[in-house]
Amino acid sequence: MAAGHNWRAPLPTPDHQIVEGARAHQDSLTKPPGSLGRLEALAVRLAAQQGRMEPAVDRVWISVFAADHGVCAEGVSAFPQAVTAQMIRNFSSGGAAINVLARTWNCTLEVVDLGTAAELPPLPGVVSAHIGPGTANLACENAMTGEQCEQAMHHGAAAADRAAATGAELFIGGEMGIGNTTSAAAVACALLATNPALLTGRGTGVDDAGLARKQQAIGAGLARHGDDRDPLTVLASLGGFEIAALAGAMLQAARHRIPVLVDGFITTTAALAAVRLNPGLRDWLHFSHCSSEAGHARLLVELEAKPLLDLDMRLGEGSGAAVALPLLRAACALHKGMATFAEAAIDKH
Questions:
Q1: What is the CA radius of gyration of the chain?
Q2: Order of strands across the sheet with 108-115?
Q3: What's the rounded Cα separation, in Å, for the pair 346 and 349?
Q4: pTM for this structure?
Q5: 133, 120, 136: which is closest to 87 by C-alpha?
Q6: What's the domain count of the chain?
Q7: Residue 254 belongs to domain with CATH number
Q8: Average model confidence (pLDDT) for the chain?
Q9: Confidence (pLDDT) at 263
Q10: Which domain range does residue 311 map to?
Q11: What are the respective helix, strand and coil percentages of the chain, to the nearest 5?
Q12: Catalytic residue among 150, 169, 293, 317, which?
């Protein structure tokens, strides 16, 4: 295990005294109690997580973890594997959806290259954290060794450390990797003991034959893996470098008392594995949207999560979380900026 990372060690808990004060403040604002709906609860949760009566999510850190997947050999993607490295170049040059959203909302964005089949030179804005040229083919063998899985989680934790060092008030994790909806579905199926047909979607847009190949590859991986539901074992056997990194990043963000805004299907799969590993993480997670990728709704139910948006998105990159960010900012602004009944000299009785 990497020095300093006991993934199962107890995590900090949100400040429950702040909860009471923040709720009382919400009830004192010039509105009928509860009339701002979930925005009120959002502000109260953020206040408790940040340990202050006036929460803020002005300083937002986004880490996009990228890696290749050996399961692509099974014909599970509509795009060639070379696209992973090409997209890392696109992130570096500022042309991807998450670049646009990070610029629009003034977020700090980094890309963490965990290992691609095609070699890449050093690129601006890209952290080189190579573990290998992608995972092995999960349909035939363990995707990662235990050591590689630990390395990936360590690189995720290092990203959360960088976020904490800048005073980040919110962490968003994203991912990029051709074939990674297959890996994520395999991990989710193993953790939930669920049939691949229920959790496997079209990912990059595969046709019916491609979907059948995905389900077959996942089925082969699950048969090889067996019934072991230990999260670390499942991640190593069936996951991807970026999925393990996301799990490590979320756990470490919580250790730094930084709230996490979870993206779509792949990131939620990582969140499920991390919560199974350390249930205290759940208190630090906000869920941004319900992806149109098959299986995401089931994962959200499993995590007792009610996402903020449902826009039929399935891009990844952290894009759904970034789109939801203004809702968190609105919740904080209303909590801080509205007048109380006493300040406005309004009789509430």
A1: 20
A2: 126-128, 108-115, 60-67, 170-176, 260-262, 285-287
A3: 9
A4: 0.98
A5: 120
A6: 1
A7: 3.40.50.10210
A8: 97
A9: 98
A10: 60-327
A11: 50, 10, 40
A12: 317
Per the annotation, the verdict on 317 as an active-site residue is yes
Residue 288, domain member (yes or no): yes
For 76, counting Cβ atoms within 10 Å of its Cβ (0-12 exposed, 13-18 middle, 19+ buried), the class is buried
For residues 335 and 43, the answer to whether their CB atoms sit within 8 Å is yes
Quick check: is 151 in a domain?
yes
Which of 258, 257, 286 minimizes the C-alpha distance to 271?
A: 286
For residue 13, tell me if it sits in a domain. Answer: no
Say what the pLDDT of residue 306 is.
97
Question: Residue 117 has which token pair?
Answer: 């089949």
Report DSSP letters for 121-132, one per residue. ---TTEEE---S
Task: Report, as an integer, the average pLDDT of 1-29.
Answer: 89
Which residues pair with residue 76 across a beta bridge? Answer: none
Integer Cα distance of 55 and 333 in angstroms: 9
| Structure tokens given for 134 | 């992608």
Residue whose pair of structure tokens reads 């020095």 in the numeric block: 3
- Say which DSSP state 87 is in: H
Is 116 contained in some domain?
A: yes
